[in-house]
User: Fold this.
Amino acid sequence: MRLTQFLLSKVGKYSKDFSNLPDRYIKRAMEQVEWRNPRGIQYKPNAVIKRAKYKFGMHRPWTGQFREENAPGVFHDKIFVEPIRKWSFFRGDRVEILVGKDKGKQGIVKQIIQERNWVTVEGLNCVMEKIGERKGFAGAYVQVEKPLLVTEQVALVDPSDLQATPFEWRFTEDGEEVRVSTRTGRIIPVPATAEETIDYKTKGTYKETPKDTTADDVTKITFEPKLQTFEMDIMNSMGIKEERVPPKYYWY
Assistant:
């Protein structure tokens, strides 16, 4: 239960990677102060109580819709989510839907909602929703993909025969961890689109700008291990010699 509550209070890794936003910005966008001590000598200074539980849905934590769903004073029923320690579904994976009106159809994973164990499949499991209705305008209907649980509502497709298959994580002889179909024994590679961010950038297509730290500088190894403490290393580099003799002392 504590693990579930901890996971529901945090943003999933793949949500943050896809957002292409710094962690500190996402934390600041979500943060809500429920109580702050008044000023005065009788109160503990800088004591605040921050909101710890949020309702995660289709709206991402850095959006205005998320703030509306989790407005101050608005609380939701507890949602029980089965924690997944090793996430195995990625954007660009081909999956087969196991439930609903699109049962048996295959599609590409479009979005990951790791906080709820959800994925959306492009063009499948859709409903029509009415938006923009107001005085003088009847609104418009748009097609919206509804989420599916990765634990029981979708199955990964084996690329060798395009059939749904169970799988498990294994290590190759080179030490690389890969997904392997337990039915055929074939490797199911992680698609390249899994690295895409919300502004459609990948590591391979990104071009360095003059203000970027170059990849060569980042991968360059500058640390040389030595059998010295940090202070001794600094003294040697600055030519400082320690000639003082420490006095004798007794610990008892």
